[in-house]
Automatic annotation (TrEMBL):
Lineage, broadest ranks: Bacteria, Bacillati, Actinomycetota, Actinomycetes, Propionibacteriales
Entry keywords, A to Z: DNA-binding
Location of the HTH merR-type domain: 1-62
Superkingdom as given in the UniProt entry: Bacteria
Entry protein name: DNA-binding transcriptional MerR regulator
A matching Pfam family: MerR
Amino acid sequence: MRSGELARLAGVTVRTLRHYHQIGLLEEPARSLNGYREYDVGHLVRVLRIKRLADLGFALQDLPLEDDADHDARLESLDAELAAQIDRLTAQRAVVAALRAGGAAPDLPPELAAHAALVSAIGLSPRLARLEREQLLLLAHLGGEEASRLIQEMYERFAEPSLMESFGAIYERFDALDQSTPAAEVERLVTDSVEALADVVAGLDLDTPLDLGTAETLFDEHGATHLNPTQVRALNEIGERLAQQLID
């Protein structure tokens, strides 16, 4: 029989047959005078066996070339692998459920779902909203559990109506900064920002300092791609003054 007939009888595709040949699971049959592969019933049995084991969950690279008697050991190993897959899928479903419940996008950790809602409520410009989102993603990944904990605590505080209104105004002023902004206005914004942020971080548990090491330069680099030079300078000044105030 030709490859098309074999594939039809076995319930696979001709491309699948070629793949079995390539990885050594199915031996190459003899070819006819016109160059076509000529399969026999033995090849069909082999393909049916491969398909059955693959459908059961065995990886193709783990399939024995010939039948063996060690069925129980193979099934025990497969059962353990399938159980691990079920655990991973169950955990994934839990994450998906948490994201849906929090109304968060899938690229954010579910425990930070409140961030997306807060950004929307504050009314950030699309540019700043994207910056906040990407910076949060970087911080959560590079800072690990400690960073995620601090972020959660901060956004719980930000969620207070009075603070949301205050920071909404600050973000609006920050978004308007450019090279034409008077130095006095930049200074007022920096001062107001430090005062507002100091109230938020004052009660945070900072017993374990958040150390990002060399990764801090990545935040600077990322911010510079979204902000103009005036905004970058203002943001750096806010960070330095806030850090000094916390030390004092």
